[in-house]
Amino acid sequence: DTAIVLFNRDLRVHDHPALAAACERAGQVVPLFVLDPSIPGDARHGFLLQCLADLRASLRQLGGDLVVRQGDAVAETMKLAGEVGAAAIHASADVSSLARRREARFAEERIEFLRHPGVTVVPPDALRPSGGGDHYRVFTPYWHAWLRHRHRPVLPPPHRVRLPSGLAPGRLPRPGTDPAMPGGESAGRERADRWLRQFLAGYADGHDDLAGDRTSRLSPYLRFGCVSPLELACRAERSEDFVRQLCWRDFHHQVTYAFPRINRENYRHRERRWRHDRDALCAWRRGMTGLPIVDAGMRQLLAEGWMHNRARLIVATYLVRRLGLDWRDGARHFFQHLLDGDVANNSGNWQWVAGTGNDTRPGRGFNPLRQAKRYDPAGAYVRRYVPELADVPGAKIHEPWRLPSLPAGYPARLDGTDG
Ligand code: FAD
């Protein structure tokens, strides 16, 4: 018999429970990806297309192929199921409202639909707080439960993918522009190998150093599932600090699974009043707020489709606390430009910063200038992304308003305060 494996944000052949199960149970397997033209192209589009090209190459090496169709995922999958006489569809379970709606539609079709783990280290519905409730609202108890969880085994790629004969694989569009990082499982695994070897040991001390840029930058690969989060967690076991970050990712996914409206509504339903100020929002987006550490982060985002975590915290806090603007405006801009932009991590972190999410200390102070001096003491990060300030020496770069005159082209401070 024949089974379809519907790929989505699990674009790999290593440690892929859905692919492994289909290859084990069915005589013939059709790996499928459906490009949905109704989902607007964004920063991630080129990265996605590279991921698909790489996945197709890997599947071909295993004797199979990646079948690509365009249109609505459910309609196209069912159409293909009819053409090849498939008896089952295997897919990795996901948490966003879009993915959940898709799963619900498949469940109504007259075909066996099987959901598999693989998008997170621990499946989003695997841990339940002992005090009741369907998910954890606070990170630390989740972390303790997460550490105790017994994992499924990490799976090798299947030996062979047997495709039904006479199937047209379908054309893959060429990426319009090359993304700042190469997409795909091969590039992701290479990056993981190199980074784990060279930098994992220094992660605890170096991950907050803005200019040092010592974090893994694996987030786009995790976003598209080019790298298995479980395999990564196992390989990185000796650094608790790093594994904890993967747990944060799982944490936001299990919140999103329980609260799929996370990108639209305040998770804790705290009423906050936000200011409306289009000019301020525009200045923030462009990296022209007059606060160098904020501008450096925002320009890194525009230049690379990625931003250091410490900078994300600084620019997000600045938007919601200094400028008093709605976190959703910030999250939308991030989502549009980040290669790793995903609903759970983006909205979860924005709500955490805005104090509308699961932060246990939502009112705590956070001074961007103090952060700048602590995490970019010599100003090297700012100098890299804000060329107007490149000639300002040392830490003075963080307070250009103290210079005899502002460097040409650099704006005065938008928030007007001093400190
Ligand atoms: P590393 O430090 O090497 O960490 C390894 C992995 O752990 C990351 O790739 C990521 O998958 C996960 N991780 C690390 N920190 C977090 C965190 N705070 N929350 C959840 N997972 C984490 N991350 C995204 O993947 N997508 C987003 O859309 C996103 N939006 C964010 C928005 C804001 C306002 C903030 C403050 C953080 C956001 N993050 C997001 C989390 C974090 O900033 C990035 O995951 C991290 O910077 C990616 O770089 P890295 O791969 O080098 O991380």
UniProtKB/TrEMBL annotation:
Cofactor detail note: Binds 1 FAD per subunit.
BP term (GO), one: response to light stimulus
UniProt-listed Gene3D superfamilies: 1.25.40.80, DNA Cyclobutane Dipyrimidine Photolyase, subunit A, domain 3, HUPs
Disordered: region residues: 164-188
SUPFAM superfamilies: Cryptochrome/photolyase FAD-binding domain (SSF48173), Cryptochrome/photolyase, N-terminal domain (SSF52425)
UniProt KW keywords: Chromophore, FAD, Flavoprotein
Cofactor (UniProt): FAD
Keyword Membrane: no
Domain Photolyase/cryptochrome alpha/beta residue range list: 1-121
Residues the entry annotates as binding FAD: 203, 215-219, 242, 340-342
Any GO molecular function: DNA binding
Site residues (Electron transfer via tryptophanyl radical), renumbered to this chain: 274, 327, 350
Protein's name according to its UniProt entry: Deoxyribodipyrimidine photo-lyase
Organism: Nonomuraea cavernae
Organismal lineage: Bacteria, Bacillati, Actinomycetota, Actinomycetes, Streptosporangiales
